[in-house]
Amino acid sequence: MEPGRLLNASLTLLILVTSSHGDHVKSGPTLKTDQALLTFHNQLTEEVQVFYTSDYCYKCVYQHLASVKPNNNSASVVISTKFTLTVQVDVQTRNATLCRWSKTYGEAGHYSVWIQMSEGASNSSCAHTVEKRPNNAYLPILVVAFLLTMIAGLFVVAPYIYRRRCTSKFLKTICCQSPQHSVDNDEENTFEHNSDKSKSKRLHSLDAFRGFALTLMVFVNYGGGGYWFFQHAPWNGLTVADLVMPWFVFIIGTSVFLAFTSMQKRGIKRLQLLRKITWRTVVLLLLGFCFLNYSPRDGPLSWSWLRIPGVLQRLGFTYFVLSLLQTFWGQKEIPLRAYHWWNPIQDVVLYWPQWLIIILLETLWLCITFLMPVPNCPTGYLGAGGLGDNGLYPNCTGGAAGYIDRWMFGDNMYRYPTCKEIYHTTQPFDPEGVLGTINSIVIGFLGMQAGKIIIFYKGTNFHILCRLLVWAIILGISAAILSKCTRDEGFIPVNKNLWSLSYVMCMGCFSFLLLGAMYFVTDIKGWWAGQPFIYLGMNSIFVYVGHSLLGFYFPFSWEMRFQESHWEWLFQSLWGTALWVLIAYFLYRKKFFLKI
Fold first, then answer.
1. Does the annotation mark 547 as catalytic?
2. pTM, full prediction
3. pLDDT for residue 195
């Protein structure tokens, strides 16, 4: 299950009134979120054809929108307001384009386009008028952002009041309690604070980071209020929903390094570690394959459509590879701080076998992606296929990555990729496919690097923050170069569906920055204990599996009645998310932590 995918609204433009004589339609159809009514009035003596394309669709061919008969006839269509549309009016009898424009229309607005002869000239023109002003589609989210800011401010002030007056036991419980338990494993977020192994310090920032990512995932899985930026990008580019899973993978890498370093220091044998790795990997794979692939809502189980790749499958395999790297090529003891020329980069040099394996894996990804021949497709193709690239490669969705997955899994993969609505693709494409898993391992390894920085330079917080920042800058600059700071024109565009190299570097940059910020606020300054995110972060498997299985049942969601705006959808998304935050809090209070 992928954040926000199941609730993506269609971008299809639907012709509702193909022909009506006289004045344009005063009362249009009932519009839903992210829709507007566009009416064309043809005052010419020739029939005109209207075509459109979305500016988010890279080099897409124009699609037919409406036919408008001559002599004051009109036609109305419902259009999407998510992205900028380019509309073109043609007279096919003359093979001429009368006018073309690009515009972002407002939600619930009624617009008219008058196709007429220009005064004093033989040319035609298209005049635009607004018959009904659009809604402010972003008002609901602005109100919610204000309310959440007020609530967050209250939670900041409340502990201060409590410490000063000591009047509320409840506030102490909610705001001031320090967590002492871990998600999945009590050791994953701890590291040795001193040479005395009995003393360990919990990395609260990692729990808070994990919980923040999970909270955002639950929110976007419930639709994110129907806003396009809380749903996955159609192909290239980034939205909020595209940030979540790489953060999880990054956190896995950091947790693996902290946990295995601690266990190796305690002398746990390699065979025991391998048993632990295998068990956790198998459980994650089975959870993803057997539970999250199927719901009673889907009807009787059929092997013909059962999806083989998946989110938990990728997380499990990534965890397996990262754990093997640390098990066989990790450092049991950090060397004494004797002078060596490589001291400033010892957290890299001492793990050169791991780096060698990661470089080989990334070289493999690059070679397969750009050198592997794909039948009837350009070598190195990274596009969505379908209508994209002027419609030249309709069956080449994902290039080599898509070809490998279709060869291995056939139809047992994700059938509704995010590019399907806007690019009109016909090929299945799975964003958790085989080739992208290589780069999932890479971003997990970057998370391991963050763990190495925290371990190697413990006690020198300034150095830790500086190194996290340096890594963020290096990765950010690399991503900017690869993408040329554009959405579609780079050497390697930022693409979550492909888990492209530029996407991995961009997400690595964000991950280092966010972890550094949370580490500063929670573990260094102690200004914030991570609530409420820390509750979800300490029961992440339970919350993820639970919301995936129950998320579309009452009381977490319901059939919406008011679909003309984002108000109800946003309330439903926040309500479902808040319920899982409360569930995680009560589990924390009961000291119940699901471990695998």
1. no
2. 0.86
3. 42
